[in-house]
TrEMBL record:
This is Rieske domain-containing protein. Belongs to the bacterial ring-hydroxylating dioxygenase alpha subunit family. It holds the Pfam family Rieske. GO terms for molecular function: 2 iron, 2 sulfur cluster binding; dioxygenase activity; iron ion binding; monooxygenase activity; oxidoreductase activity, acting on paired donors, with incorporation or reduction of molecular oxygen. InterPro entries: ARHD_Rieske_2Fe_2S (IPR015881), Rieske_2Fe-2S (IPR017941), Rieske_2Fe-2S_sf (IPR036922), Ring_hydroxy_dOase_asu_C_dom (IPR015879), Rng_hydr_dOase-A (IPR001663). The keyword Phosphoprotein does not apply. Residues 44-157 form the Rieske domain. The keyword Acyltransferase does not apply. It comes from the Bacteria. Keywords: 2Fe-2S, Dioxygenase, Iron, Iron-sulfur, Metal-binding, NAD, Oxidoreductase. SUPFAM superfamilies: Bet v1-like, ISP domain.
Length: 319
């Protein structure tokens, strides 16, 4: 039996090296549990942007795997990420997706918490628990995220308290985050998430959006017909911009000859934004976007999709 399994494993490895991926990885329940533990349970995952909670008391609710989190700016202006779970029986204390609140109240037994997570209200504390001697209310808080960090206003959480530092995890991909988040000295304003729920394994969506250009001429035929993709062989293009991941796929568009300003204008950026970008981008950012005409993402840029599972709608802040 062991010899047979070894032969099967070798065949699988050989197929993978040739680009043949076993179909069962998309519907194997045990593998999915392992992915949740080894990938999503250890990686840093984007949950929000600081601009989504601009005022004291603002909050949004986001999910990471099976857990719900409250991302709130407390009354002192500090951004906190807390499990959306009452300390008593685990009921969600916040049912809205977005809002502004000074406190959160559990609908089950009425325990209430400040927007910094502190337990401030416990009905019948003395009668039910004997007061502080029976149950100490002081110092009790909603559980904080196991690990919390931010980069350029992007808020990440990790379910692993011993996860590597966020900036080490991002590595060379920070260059591209800088490119997108520093298009203005005012930073970004996030308009909120757009969500689609589909009956599919998470890897299907990731593979599609991280660079499956093969489907474009068929699924998005109208886009091709209007000329968005002007050449089919992006790898041979000398005068264009290409976003390419070493682990598969990318997207590309053709740029005309000209200065940085002319090329940015061709892409569609307004003049005032071009001016701001030229002021805040580094020379390498400028060169990457409109001079060399091509670029390759670092090898580990798509090492996990956990950090991009929350779809966010970004716009550049103008005030």
């Amino acid at each position: 039996m062991e010899v047979f399994e070894l032969v099967v494993h070798r065949q699988v490895f050989d197929d993978v090296r040739r680009g043949m991926i076993p179909a069962h990885i998309y519907n194997d329940a045990e593998l999915f549990e392992l992915e949740k533990e080894r990938i999503f349970g250890r990686a840093w995952m984007l949950v929000a942007h600081e601009s989504e909670v601009p005022q004291d008391g603002d909050y949004v609710v986001r999910r990471v795997l099976n857990d719900s989190f409250i991302i709130a700016r407390d009354s002192m202006g500090e951004v906190r990420v807390m499990f959306n779970m009452c300390l008593h029986r685990g009921m969600q204390v916040c049912r809205a997706e977005i809002g502004n609140a000074s406190n959160f109240r559990c609908p089950y037994h009425g325990w209430s918490y400040r927007n910094d997570g502190r337990l401030i209200g416990l009905p019948f504390h003395k009668e039910a628990y004997g007061g502080e001697d029976g149950f100490r209310k002081k110092g009790q808080t909603l559980l904080p995220a196991p690990n919390l960090a931010s980069y350029n206003g992007l808020i990440f959480v990790s379910m692993d308290p011993d996860a590597e530092p966020l900036e080490d995890f991002l590595g060379e991909f920070k260059f591209y985050l800088d490119f997108y988040t520093k298009q203005s000295s005012h930073g970004l304003e996030v308009r909120g998430p757009q969500r689609w729920r589909i009956k599919a394994n998470w890897k299907i969506g990731v593979e599609n959006f991280s660079g499956d250009m093969y489907h474009t001429p068929q699924t998005h035929a109208s886009v091709v017909e209007i000329g968005l993709f002007r050449e089919p062989k992006a790898e041979k293009r000398k005068d264009g911009v290409t976003y390419w991941a070493h682990r598969g796929g990318g997207t590309t568009y053709k740029l005309p000859a000209g200065t940085f300003e002319e090329r940015m204008r061709y892409i569609g950026y307004p003049d005032d934004m071009i001016k701001r970008m030229s002021e805040v981008w580094t020379p390498s950012n400028n060169n990457w976007s409109a001079t060399t005409g091509s670029s390759s993402l670092p090898r580990h840029a798509f090492r996990t999709s956990a950090s991009c599972t929350t779809g966010q709608g970004f716009k550049t802040a103008t005030t």
